[in-house]
Amino acid sequence: MKSITVIFLIASCLFFSCSDNKQENPALLDNFILPQDTKSVLSSLLTDNYEITQLETTENCLIGKIDKIRKIEGHYYFLSDNKTILHFNEQGEFVSSLNKQGQGPEEYRRIEDFDVYIIEGQTEVWISDNISIKVYDAYDFSYKYKVSFPFIIHKFKRMNSSNILLVTGQSEYSLTLTDKEGVVLSEYLEKEIPFLMFRPVQFLKYGTDY
User: What spatial distance separates the first Cα and last Cα of the chain, rounded to whole Å?
Assistant: First the structure.
């Protein structure tokens, strides 16, 4: 019983001591401002130079899970559910879609990665389906050609020199540089990063390099 009384007295002293300190030192909280709103404002995330484009939402162009977005010359390309690419113009109006999943010569098993390039005045959509890169016209998605490789392809980036930088699998190296025909020029990172295919990968431009 005595021990309980002692603990109560100590706790009471600490409480009143803290209360006294708060009253004697109000300046401690002068510069402390509590946040009033936890909602993010777009300008705080994207600066003041953002714009909103409302996309058309008919039954022909509904987007599922977004895996990647690419914008080029004001047009938007969305990779949806790793199997379909949808194309919208500057006003958000639906233009066309690419959905050629299959085993045929102009089809793909899945879309592992994609990008959009302007080559000799023509806008092209490039798709990695693990075993090759297939190229389609960016407006009507007609098939153009493919580049084959002797290894698995996860991610890719076309360089200014027309060479292709690849994140590769079933190979001794994680990064491979090829020419536009798929002939290996250089290899890097001798399996130094485990499970790279499951990690987010970005090719960032640095001067004229990536």
Answer: 74
